[in-house]
Amino acid sequence: MPSLNHERAPLYEALLEYRERKNRSFHVPGHKNGRVYEEQGQNGQKIRSFAHEQEVLRQLMAIDVTEITGTDDLHQPTGVIRDAQELAADCFGAEETYFLVNGSTVGNLALILTCCTEPGDVLIVQRNVHKSILHGLMLAGAHAVFVTPQLDAPSGLPTAPTVDAITEALERHPAAKGVLLCSPNYYGMGVDLQAIAEAVHAHGKQLLIDEAHGAHYGLHPDLPASALQCGADGVVQSTHKMLSSLTMSAMLHVQGDRLNGGLLKQRLAMLQSSSPSYPLMASLDVCRRWLHTRGADAFTRGLEAVSWFRSSMEQLPCYSLLPQPAQGVEGEGAYSSLDPFKLTVRDRTGRYSGYELQEKLEELGCVPEMSDVVHVVFVFTLGSTMEDAKALFHALEQIHSCYGEVGNSHISIEKKDHTNFLHHTSTLISDPVPFRLQPLAADAWETVSLEQAIHREVAEMVIPYPPGIPLLYPGEWITEEMMLFLEQLSQQGAKCQGVHDTTLKTLRVVKK
Ligand SMILES: Cc1ncc(COP(=O)(O)O)c(C=O)c1O
Hints:
By secondary structure, the chain is of the alpha+beta class. The protein contains 15 helices and 22 strands. The protein folds into 4 domains: 10-61, no CATH class; 80-291, 3-Layer(aba) Sandwich (Aspartate Aminotransferase, domain 2), CATH 3.40.640; 297-401, Aspartate Aminotransferase, domain 1 (Alpha-Beta Complex), CATH 3.90.1150; 439-510, Ornithine Decarboxylase, Chain A, domain 4, CATH 3.90.100.10.
């Protein structure tokens, strides 16, 4: 391949040229480069009643084109989109890269529909996955063999399954089409994907990775290796999350010949709009140019800010941070890498839940990414600055100084560790669970007591929270062991999502 010029952003440049040409538009989109908000008065002069829309949207609308001469076609790229995707593939180390205009969501759907082509095809999937993966399984009519993830005991957070569990699942299900995992998780905790890729490939299967939270991986020596570098066959990344493209823009990278490339293209054409947003795609092009031309330096400012924050937090002992995994302790710990840009903070005194801490921080003008019962997660990126880090530190310091004496904790940080249960029973690796699109008819299920639910097919999802790993998916069968465990959770007052009866005294099951 001739050497690629990463100073160019061919798609973005085509849009700027389009804007400069000021041609008359006799094509969609209907806003006519945003002119719709430019109201004309009686004598033709512009009036400003829609000044706000004009100011906010006009810049964007000026490059919001469609497939006209010179702007190429996402579904059959031969021009600037092809060039932009080739440059992206080169930057991220893929053989082929596809731009996505519906986030990692559509990438996950496309990967599953490429891997599982017949209803009943088996896919090995980690139990705790994003809903887009469940939707992909539904669309494909696939059967999922769920593998329980590891649980980080100190934080109570689930990561991904061990290589041994994946290998065992592959051995039990030799007809499986592939393995789909998510790494890193929302908290930035990742597992050793290289070992998993080797195991999956040794069984002649493809490894698909939902790397929605790791689009920046592999691009700086301080960042963990990317899933592609570890050998994954198909990888989905939300470029908009941890890099710098517009929300909803994402990329799907592939390498090797295990994935059916022709079918993948057909799936993407089926799932993505025939009018994909050019501002979204151009933002991917610009993001790639920024990364490639800056190299590792693109991350310097953000990394400096986040490492200053991390070390400054030692001055505030009432908080703890999710630690980097211990190096060189092979086989120990549920994660082997931690995204340095993700900071998971918890109130060690137990006075504030993660939710309360988030609320207090927001009152002080610092908005976290998310919180759970215990933790608050802060996302730094290549766009973060030292001022951001200092503002966050001072906000946490201010909350800390209002603590008074440590000691009147009202948060009991219980870790009802149901993965222990899942690890110690036959449910570590589930039987194939059928997914289908047809909703269960209202008269197809009934509500029964837990005792009556034994040996019945469950009709709803059961997700004790925390840690938020689904214990049962619709279509799974309830063993006596499972029933006893559910009973125990119910007696402990565990919070449960997905179920109609959150006290877990009854369950919906499929009628006999
Ligand atoms: C693990 C994971 N996968 C996929 C997605 C979907 O990504 P997107 O919002 O880019 O569609 C998310 C969204 O938060 C996610 O957390």
